[in-house]
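SEQUENCE-TO-STRUCTURE ENTRY
===========================
Question of interest: how does this chain fold, as expressed in backbone structure tokens?
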Amino acid sequence: MKNVIATFVLTAFAALSMHAQTVTGKWKTIDDETGKPKSIVEISEKNGKIYGKVVEILTDKKDAKCDKCPGADKGKPIKGLTIIKGLSKDGKEYSGGTITDPSSGKEYKCALKLNGSDKLDVRGYVGIQALGRTQTWVRVK
């Protein structure tokens, strides 16, 4: 009986540890200007690629549309918009895809890197990573 309980506890701990070491899940974005929470983005994996979709807006702009977004995203509601597209794992980082800033409609190259188990460094850049900026998102528990 002790072995069964020990196995269960170890399995549960391993499952929680694995979840904490992945970028998938829900993340709270923080507004650069106000320092206040702005939205919740759910990051998921599909066919080996990473995608992030706005699932909740935490400001008074809950019905905002992405009027400045390019292409098929133009005029779509920000809630439900996929803003992170096509990243692949590259060592400890995810890169090779894009991120869209719904406020400006601009699309940037993107890199994601875990900063501990509950913080995610999200870097948007043009050309090379040195020419960009990083936001830190916080995991939603």
Observations:
- Residues 41 and 54 are 4 Å apart (CA to CA).
